[in-house]
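User: I've been going back and forth on whether these two constructs are worth ordering. Before I decide, could you fold them both?

Assistant: Sure. I'll take them in the order you sent them. The first construct and its C-alpha cells:
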Amino acid sequence: MMNDTSVTLSTIKLVQLGFNSGEYRYIRCLLLLIPKIRILHINEQLLLNIKDQLLSDHQLRQSRCNKVKQLTMFRHDQNDVINNVNIDKIKVIFPNAIIIKEEKSRNT
C-alpha cells in the first residue's frame, strides 16, 4: 500500500504530526495520501529531522508542500530548546505558507 497512489484522503485539509521522529518514507506516503492539505502542524524536531529530505524531494514539494497555506511548528516545552530552525529553508519547502512557531505544554 505504500506505493499505491490511487488511494487518497481527499477531504482532509489539516494534518498534525505530533511525534518527534519518524522515517521519512512513511511521512512522505502520508502526505501523498492527502492531496488537499492546507494546514500542517508539525513537531519542530520532526521537521528538523526531515527538512533535508523534503528539500531534495521535488515531487512532494510540488504536489503537497506548495499547497500548504499555514505551517505551525511546535515544541512541547522550553526544555526542548531548538533555536537553529532556518526559516528561509522552511520557506523554500513551504513557499506559500504562513509560518507560525508555537510552544505547547505536555498536557495539551
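The second construct, handled the same way:
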Amino acid sequence: MDRESLLKFARYAFYTILVGGLLYVLIPMDLPTLQSSIIKTELQQLTVLIIVALFLERALEVYKLFYFSPEKERLAAQVEKFQLELGSLLTNADDSANDKRIQAAKISLFNAEESLRIYKNHMRQSLLKAAIVFGLLIGLVGVRSLEGAFNFPGPESVLEIFRLYLFRVLDLILTAGLIAGGSEGIHNVIKKIGNLFPDVQKKVIDFVQAIKQNPV
C-alpha cells in the first residue's frame, strides 16, 4: 500500500470512528421536540435572515467596487486593447510579415483573458469568504436558522450539554451558509416551504406587516 492510499485509509477510518462515536453517544438520548408553532417560527427566522442577507449583499457590492473594481477594469481594458490590436493585424493578414505579430498578439490576448478570469475567480472567492465570516459572526450573536424551532430537554449531563452545543455549532454553520448564499437562496427555501404549506405566504405577509406596525 503506497503512502497516499495509507493516508486515505487513515482519514476514512478516522471519519468512521468519529461518526460511529457520535451515533453511539447521541442516539440513546431523548430527542428534542418541535415547537408547536414551528412553521411560524421558521418563517420569522428566515425573514430576518433575508433582511440580513440583503444588507450584506449591498455592503459587499460597495466592498467590491472599492477593492476589486479598479484592478478588474484595468485587466478588462488590457483585454480590449489586445483584441483591437489583433483585429487590426488580422485586417492586414495578407502581409506575411504580420504572421509572427498575429501569433504574438493571440498569445498576449490569451494571457490577458486568463489573467482577467483568474482575477474574477479570486474576487468571487474573496467575497464569498467575507460573506461566510459575516454569517458566522451574525450566528454567534444569536441570529440563527433552526435553534428557535426545537425544544431541547434541560441538559443534566456532560453528554447532553455536548449535544446541545454540537447542535448550536451545526446551526451556526448552516446559518452562515444561508446568509453567504444570498437573499435569493433563502427566498427559494421559503418558496419550497410554501409548496408544502399553502398558507405560508399569508404568514410571511402578516409578519412583515407586524414589523412595519411595530418598528424597533
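Notes on the second construct follow. Residues 37-213 form one domain. The mean pLDDT is 79.
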